[in-house]
Amino acid sequence: MYLKNTWYVACTPDEIVGKPLGRRICGEAMVFFRGPDDQVTAVEDFCPHRGAPLSLGFMRDGHLVCGYHGLTMGPEGKCVSMPGQRVAGIPAIRRFPVIERYGFIWVWAGDAELADPAKLHHLPWAEDPQWAYGGGLYHIQCDYRLMIDNLMDLTHETYVHASSIGQPEIEEAAPATRVEGDEVVTSRFMENIKAPPFWQAALRGNGLADDVPCDRWQICRFTPPSHVLIEVGVAHAGHGGYDADAQYKASSIVVDFITPETETSIWYFWGMARNFKPHDAALTATIQAGQGKIFSEDLEMLEAQQRNLLAQPERRLLKLNIDAGGVQSRKILDRLLEREVQERAALVAARAAASGTAAGTAATRPATVIHPVTQGSH
Amino acid sequence: MYLKNTWYVACTPDEIVGKPLGRRICGEAMVFFRGPDDQVTAVEDFCPHRGAPLSLGFMRDGHLVCGYHGLTMGPEGKCVSMPGQRVAGIPAIRRFPVIERYGFIWVWAGDAELADPAKLHHLPWAEDPQWAYGGGLYHIQCDYRLMIDNLMDLTHETYVHASSIGQPEIEEAAPATRVEGDEVVTSRFMENIKAPPFWQAALRGNGLADDVPCDRWQICRFTPPSHVLIEVGVAHAGHGGYDADAQYKASSIVVDFITPETETSIWYFWGMARNFKPHDAALTATIQAGQGKIFSEDLEMLEAQQRNLLAQPERRLLKLNIDAGGVQSRKILDRLLEREVQERAALVAARAAASGTAAGTAATRPATVIHPVTQGSH
Amino acid sequence: MYLKNTWYVACTPDEIVGKPLGRRICGEAMVFFRGPDDQVTAVEDFCPHRGAPLSLGFMRDGHLVCGYHGLTMGPEGKCVSMPGQRVAGIPAIRRFPVIERYGFIWVWAGDAELADPAKLHHLPWAEDPQWAYGGGLYHIQCDYRLMIDNLMDLTHETYVHASSIGQPEIEEAAPATRVEGDEVVTSRFMENIKAPPFWQAALRGNGLADDVPCDRWQICRFTPPSHVLIEVGVAHAGHGGYDADAQYKASSIVVDFITPETETSIWYFWGMARNFKPHDAALTATIQAGQGKIFSEDLEMLEAQQRNLLAQPERRLLKLNIDAGGVQSRKILDRLLEREVQERAALVAARAAASGTAAGTAATRPATVIHPVTQGSH
């Protein structure tokens, strides 16, 4: 149960340098490649000739060449050439709308005609030279909503990340959750605490003392379909906490883009955006390595939780106050999923009316027609 | 098809030193831990908060703390505390009766109100200082009854364990099988034979000549639900064989506790109890290593046999005279399984009468109630 | 959907030297061994005693001894002895007709009474001392027909085997396909080309210049049930190409025996037969190593194609002119499969008439009868 008519992070540009990338997203096997004019394209990872994965092929002159028999795929999902063949009759394969922005390749996993670039999640920091970003990608066997729950309740830091960002004061500070339209915000503020190891390092990285009392904050924001951006930071106590002047604090945005692969697996794009020392590449690398280690600690727990839930599907989970962020996020998702069902029904009806036939889905997913065989003995 | 209202070996004390142990038994995911006052407890391996396995958590002051968000579980399956939460409304999880005795942790996998310590298999040697014990644990992908068959027909030693305890004389000595109530005894006696390598070592370990003619015996006893204890030994020939004076023989009890994990997998606790040189720890270690190697030889055969039987479920197996021990053991199991069905039906009726409702199972497996969310925005 | 009443390559003689071999063919678990008088036998890999795989046993005096309890199986699928047992009542297990010829063990996977040695694929080169053969075996997770398609359209060499036998001229030369009874022949001829690396080596191996213009040919012949033999070669240009005198060419036969294991996996016996320098064992080894490397390049593609097709079973594949060889081969297979259905229906009717009962299959697959237990307590 995930939204399909929405933009998900599919991959990063470095994953498609000079080669195609096969990746399943929302149940759809896709292949991503950089076509003529350097535009990124996504089509089905299924050669219309014999069904081989196009992602096993290679790039030639901005076209994707199937590695089995050389069918050459253009950016529109249309075969542009094939040795010894007339290609006009070769059916097109499904194309998925793609946008490259903010350092990511985004894909619209559902109905292409509904794809709207204006609906892309706006990320001002990603285009601001005063900010730096470092991150990574994990493949995790869990429902994407378990990861949303995880990120909207940072109480788990005390347990899962005890040696880095966890500290007892987190669970002692009750979170406050509010709903803002389709977004959910859960905030926690801690005052006069000792900074945990990760934040001590960040303070030092920012040229600040790491052994003085601090204020700490965590402001988690869920944005559909499955993004959680978390403003996190510490300030030397007595300077206004979250609102302290930049010279007294180290702060950043934890970035989490959670892309469903299947109902029970995700591509988890994690990272950190910061607006201090943005040009310090060594610092970026250090933070990235530290965050990567911390975020890997969630994997075992989430996958074990998923197995437990699959084994006992009838069990209901508790909804405590600390779970309010996830609970509210799921309510919004339920509402949007319901709306998507209606939109798709309307779309099917519109397609049927437009084509004058009942075969209303032909526009986006053409049936694979059998091409007349030119060989005489056939 | 395994009994559930009975005591099975779940683990050994060394497996829960300072940490919880997750183990599936009779299809139930359980977590074992040593609670306050050092008593061993088993509860569902499912945190009532978000379904994480409690076995990924840690021990604190005799309580099991969930490693995800810190829910603290007490020995009765009731949450005793959770940071920032009122815990009275958190539903209890299922608790499994446990006994620690004879060097093992035993669990009652079925209905808690029927658990009867008096039904524990009595093992006098395990509490007698004149006896020593060493053993191990194997995880095997087979129906527990295939292992019972294996142990109640030691003809296989000639083939599976040819280099250690097997010898042609085994299959030349016809076994005799008798039923004693719910137990089955299959015995084999061989006279004037050469001791095989394992027993030569045992004779030497007991200070006896290893190259003289011997009498050898194997007396396999099946006790429900799935225990096979085998009196085995050799005596210098001419001194009475099984009944020979201790100075002429090396004998011991092969101990096999077979605990179903699922319908087609087991936890196999194997070991050997001996009453010679009981304080010789080096000898215990030597025997344990030798037995571990020998018993590992059964794994491949049993798992391959299981795969064959699953692939051809309609095939019936032969029941030769050598199979009588297993055949009779299965007859007893079938009878006890039938009795358990009746007992559980009576129990459900009694529960319904007691509660005055149809929801008769509430006593042992409480439905997970949704705890009121205290957070206002919910 | 594979033929069963036909001869498939099961294994090579070296696989059953001094030991049995377990192998699943056409869904049937079989065990192959060399019985008394060195004749090869195949029976079910299922001991009639307790269902253990007989292939885990060992050979003794030309009989196969079960590794679990010593049941000794004779070449007819009848137990010939078992320690301490009367074996007359032990039911026979299914036997599969076997032929050893041409350096292979062939098995008839279907109804034994229809097995006809005259239907064995005739391979003159395999018995001609002027020819040498080297080959190997790969286990591949794909429908056997995907491998037939692969071999009947060598266009893929340009892509899958670009560094060894592929060259652009292959796809520029349109193939011609013709049907000859139950066989299909697809041929390609290229003139005045540069020999690719594999063929340069073969020219050198044959004492010929490797840097002169050549003619090249590929004549693929499909023979049911799943054999593709390919005449391949190069000749110095201007000497008649395929028909050139032996002193001007290097040619050979690529041998492909594709034996279904299951609906989606195969045992792929590949090799090369050549009639130049047939006694040069070092050359045979060199060719075998080179071919093995090249043919391993197909595995990833075929297995990925299979996964794609299983994920989208409703998708139809294109049938271009280059696919005509596979398309025609599948048509023949469809016709033969239909004929086999009718033959088997007739056989069942004949069996029923012969036995005077409805249990018409008893002749080839005896029901496993429960042998009376001789042990009194049973």
- Give the % helix of chain A: 10-25%
**Largest sheet composition of chain A:** 7 strands, antiparallel
User: Would you report the number of β strands of chain A?
Assistant: 18
- Would you tell me the overall average pLDDT of chain A? 91
What is the terminal-to-terminal distance of chain A? 45 Å
Query: How much strand content do the residues of chain A show?
Result: 25-35%
Seen as an oligomer or otherwise, the chain set is homotrimer
Q: pLDDT below 50 for ≥5 consecutive residues: which ranges of chain A?
A: 358-378
What integer value in Å does the Rg of chain A equal?
A: 24 Å
Instruction: List the secondary-structure elements of chain A in sequence, H or E.
Output: EEEEEEEEEEEEHHHEEHEEEEHH
Interface with most residues? B-C, 36 and 31 residues
Structural classification of chain A = alpha+beta
- Which strand order does the major sheet of chain A show? 12-18-17-16-15-14-13
Apparent shape of chain A: globular
